[in-house]
Amino acid sequence: MGKKGGLILPILTLLLVIPRLSGDEKPLLQFLDSTGMELRWEPYRETARLSRGYRTASFKVGEPWLLLDFSRQVPCEPISKREGVLLLPRSTEETLKAFFFDGKKGAGPRVGAIFIDAGHGGKDPGTIGRHLTGGKELVLYEKDIVLETSLMLGEMLKNHFPGKQIAFSRTDDSYLTLEERPELANRIRLAENEAIVFISIHANASLNPAAKGFEVWYLPPDYRRSLISEKEVERESKEILPILNTMLEEEFTIESVLLAKYILKGLEAEIGGVSDNRGLKDESWFVVRKAKMPSVLVEIGFVTHPGEAELLADPRHLQKIAQAIYNGVVSFVRFFEETHERGGSP
Question: Are residues 74 and 151 in the same domain?
Fold first, then answer.
């Protein structure tokens, strides 16, 4: 998650038959059992990532290197595979222990920043709802209601997380391009072992005036971004950048789906009685796919639905929406930080 890490999914399957070993190697599974570390294994590429807390060490079977925290390459004796079993040389085991258990790391991984993107703004009003209600015309601009919701959400998060950065793409009726929004989040400076999440808030519209409800979007699992650039790794590691990007993308997908589920659950609890739950959806929205972190896009309702438009024009309803998103974010942060503190996985 965040800079270069995430929630680990242990999916390694090894044969029960252990091959004859020399005194200088052991089954990698035995090392994992003794240290409580996690392993994500890609059998097609024969690549893997070891994780403990927020630190990672990636390797490829037969290659004489380890890539630490997706950035620093160190030489080592290759991890091999015989009779379906991954074998760890003693010297490489010592390198891994020194990296993961050096005793210099203090607190475990944490969410260091939450970035809130209020969609549209300025010359871009977003979707517009026009309705006649009570003999008066109601005109609703997406840019206004999502800004109000975002500011409410940000205030709650600041109060709850005084030690975290709560950042915004905009706090007034200003215009930003789609490129500028995620870039603002990508440039936020984080301490080691800190993560960032990206939440973009929007309102929906439809040619069908009966359409209403809330939904949360995340990137499709098969979408690939350039999360790690060549300048972020040593020259010798550039040939494996596609593999590393795939690994990190899969991490972010897991976390984005989890964040989306928590937010959707919050929305259902707060406004499910007056608005429809349209569920989780995946789509490669530009503002989300350019964010190099776990990211979701929240659609809070339809400005084109007469009844929902009246709700969205009511600050009390927007407060409930902000509360719902807040509840989801707090639940996600708690789960993420407590899971890593325990050294476990979802």
Answer: no
Classify residue 249 by burial, with Cβ atoms within 10 Å: 0-12, 13-18, 19+. Answer: buried
Residue numbers of the domain that contains 278:
110-342
- Regarding whether 129 and 192 lie in a shared domain, the answer is yes
Note the pLDDT tens digit of each residue in 259-271: 999 999 999 999 9
Q: How distant is the alpha carbon of residue 93 from its chain centre?
A: 30
Residue 4 parent element (H or E): none
Give 309-325 pLDDT, tens digit per residue. 999 999 999 999 999 99
Spatial CA neighbour of 218 closest among 173, 185, 263? 263
- pLDDT, tens digit (0-9, with 9 covering 90-100), for 71-112: 677 889 999 998 889 999 999 999 999 888 875 544 557 899
Q: How far is CA 134 from each of CA 32, 137, 310, 321, rounded to the nearest angstrom?
A: 67, 8, 11, 25
Q: Which amino acid is at 20?
A: R
H-run or E-run covering 125:
none
Instruction: Name the nearest CA neighbour of 148 among 331, 328, 312.
Output: 312
Tell whether 315 and 212 lie within a shared domain.
yes
Q: In what order do the strands lie in the sheet with 25-27?
A: 25-27, 85-89, 80-82
Confidence (pTM):
0.71
Alpha carbon distance 134, 274 (integer Å): 20
Q: Say how many domains are in the chain.
A: 2
